[in-house]
Sequence to fold (257 residues):
Amino acid sequence: MNPLVSIIITNFNKEKYLEDCLESCLNQTYKNFEICIADNDSTDGSLKIIKRYNKKIRIFNIKRKYKTGPQNQLFCIQNLIKKTKGKIICLLDSDDFFYKNKILEIAYTFNKGNIKFIFDEPCIRKQKKFIMRNKNSKHIWPTIFPTSSISFLKKEYMSFNKLCFLKNKKFNNLAVDFRIQVYSMCIIKDYKILKKRLTNYRQNPDGLESNWKKYSLSWWKRRYQAHLYLKRLYQTINIKVPISIDFLLSKMLNHFK
Fold:
């Protein structure tokens, strides 16, 4: 079994990381793959770098449509997936990169078992280990892996895509990694975590996460959105989520803001 793997990269103003990102994909030990990259109206030198690889990758220019970064990234991914040819999808942020055995390990794991989603533990700069926290409540979201650590079967994404609620402004600050993992881990419960370092994740000061400093009002606003999204997904399988102190506090601070 040698399935085609589609690597999907979304980029917005990450010119200083792009070469590392693209070279890491081209240097994979597994060779049956395609690279699809969407530039989302970058204003830096990103396109100049991307075009240097035009014979090796598929390039798409996708206009920014929404006010928030998470919505625009999800919109790019949705559009790219429609254009991909692979059976397996690997997501990659343009400021991260893959280690050379990433695609080989992902393809092998999908072939080995009947799995819909795979998450590999990332290597994080200045942090020895990605920490999986135990959650006190079963009705709370899991520890979230970064986008670049997410892989899935293309056909399974179509089912998830119906529950993205992309256009719903109540969830406009929720990133694709959160949405996918809540769906796969809490709703369908069909996933595997690979305890292998296959992805290098950069925590950059200009990344999406930099907009939500922990315990700031914007952080509480996004947390309230996360509670509402989780509740909405559980409703699709007729499970009522109990009201928690965390939910009430998030709601109160969100309205205060």
